[in-house]
Amino acid sequence: MDYNALKQRWLLEENREFRGWDFSHLDGRLKEEKLPWDYRSIICKYLNKDKLLLDMGTGGGEFLLSLQHTYTNTSVTEGWKPNLKLCKETLEPLGITVQQVFNDNKLPFDDDTFDIVINRHEEYNAKEVKRILKDDGIFITQQVGGKNNEKLSKFLITNFESDVLAFELNKEVSKFKNLDFTILYENEYFPSLKFFDVGAIVYFAKIIVWEFPNFSVERCFNQLCELENRLKKNGYVESLEHRFIIVAKNSK
Asked: Rounded to whole angstroms, what are the CA distances from 94 to 8, 15, 38, 65, 71?
């Protein structure tokens, strides 16, 4: 096996540009097990054209636009500068309100503003969500749990220790119940994630920096070579993700 050629290929993956929250570069190179719920369908169950919608941490707005909600009734937050720039270029001209957010503990919206707040894989503060929601407003969040890709992270990153292991469904549900939310739906699942080439793992790991801190091809070369051997034997490298979803109704 020509490990030097592999290294050069992996370095190209490490240095490839990433925009928005678009993983299309990995199409056909990995396979995620389907979740037992459909985030989009759940949102559409509660959404109609007249409701005021906030998408927290919208990324580049790709998913939001797929909902085709009334633009003038739509707001988004985003904190990462490259994504914020993209939102300003693509969402604001449509009439969507774009707000930069540095701290999810203080959102730039008045009390009782939104009918629905959605949040996919973005931080939130339950008290602040309650403040900006109208009475009977709906909060829908799909989250990446604290055990996401834990084994792969530990394999690639020497002495890796997650500081979010306790982030799980039951504890988050309790927070909302303590704030007088009614839980309309909750679920948690650990889907399989299979990578079909190690370059895909490199591209993935350099983006998800909080799960693979200080990752680089140089630092992790021996581990990557071992994953390449595993892939040659099994046809894939498997990781386990951690997802949960909460749909909560606000009561003032």
From this structure: 42, 32, 27, 10, 6
Q: Which two tokens stand for residue 184?
A: 């309309």
164 and 146 in contact (C-beta within 8 Å)?
Answer: yes
DSSP code, position 121: S
**Cβ-based burial of 29 (10 A; exposed 0-12, middle 13-18, buried ≥19):** middle
Model confidence pTM above 0.70: yes
- For 70, 86, 94, 180, 243, the CA distances from 78, given in Å and listed in that order, are 19, 10, 17, 27, 21
Rounded to whole angstroms, the Cα distance separating 83 from 165 reads: 27
Nearest to 239, CA basis, from 160, 141, 109, 152: 152
Residue 20: the pLDDT is 65
pLDDT for 162? 87
247 class by beta-carbon count within 10 Å (0-12 exposed, 13-18 middle, 19+ buried):
buried
The per-residue pLDDT for 3 is: 77
